[in-house]
Amino acid sequence: MILEGGMRPGDKLPSMADLEARFGVSHTVMREALRVLETRGLVQIQHGKGAVVSQSPSEALGLSLSTIFQLHDGTMVNLMELRTILETEVARLAAIRRNDQDLEAMEASLKRFEHPPLSTDVYIDADVAFHNALVSATYNPVLGSVINSLQWLLVESRSITFRGPAEGVTRALKAHWRIYEMVKAQDPEGAKNAMLQHLQETQEDIELAIKEGRLRKEL
């Protein structure tokens, strides 16, 4: 009903009584069905309001991805391989489809790196903002949901690499500017290659953090 009936995030589902009548099930069955949907992140049960379509479908996808990583003993290397598959294509598409507003958002996020003191939170927020601006520039909402659902898995690794050698942060900032320049120049292959180089350097930082005991290999 949610997917095929055109309901949008924030829309309120019919009352329990209406749902029970519509589907011909008992109150107990309908209550359990809504509980399952809430667990999957598709609806939120709000006091005094009932069931509401979730505002953040990426959270539901993120929960599923987290479960997948746990079931398969996923590692940081696995996560970086997934990022490489997705984010190199994000950079390529962004170079093709970006507009002036997208470029402004990317540049604003990069300038946040350059205002000392650069705390862990500022570094992570600026990094996330830059990658989000790239994803937005693809104008592919499905791809955006997949990328956004991974972000919370990356917070720990971003924090650890920030606390690593100072040159790692400087290198990351230079890499972001390279990606930006390729996107600005509307050079899709150049943007893809710049992103690939950035992710390879990030993986080197992660492997160093694992070796030094600053980061667990498992997710």
Description of the molecule:
There is one protein chain. This protein has 219 residues and is mostly helical. The chain has two domains: 16-55, Winged helix-like DNA-binding domain superfamily/Winged helix DNA-binding domain (Arc Repressor Mutant, subunit A); 59-211, GntR ligand-binding domain-like (Four Helix Bundle (Hemerythrin (Met), subunit A)). 69% of the residues lie in helices and 4% in strands. It is built from nine helices and two strands; from the N terminus they run H-H-E-E-H-H-H-H-H-H-H. The chain has helices at 16-23, 27-39, 57-71, 76-97, 100-111, 120-136, 141-162, 166-184, 188-211, and strands spanning 43-46, 50-53. Strands 1-2 form a two-stranded antiparallel sheet. Strand 1 and strand 2 form a beta hairpin. It is globular and about 60 Å long.
Number of domains: 2
Q: If strands are numbered along the chain, what order do they take across the biggest sheet?
A: 1-2
State the helicity in percent bands. 55-70%
CATH architecture of the largest domain, please?
Up-down Bundle
**Which word captures the global form?**
globular
Strand/helix succession: HHEEHHHHHHH
Q: Give the C-alpha Rg.
A: 21 Å
CA-to-CA gap between the ends? 35 Å
List the helices and strands and how they pair.
Layout: H1 16-23, H2 27-39, E1 43-46, E2 50-53, H3 57-71, H4 76-97, H5 100-111, H6 120-136, H7 141-162, H8 166-184, H9 188-211
Antiparallel strand pairs: 1-2
Helix pairs in contact: 1-2, 3-7, 4-7, 4-8, 4-9, 5-6, 5-8, 6-7, 8-9
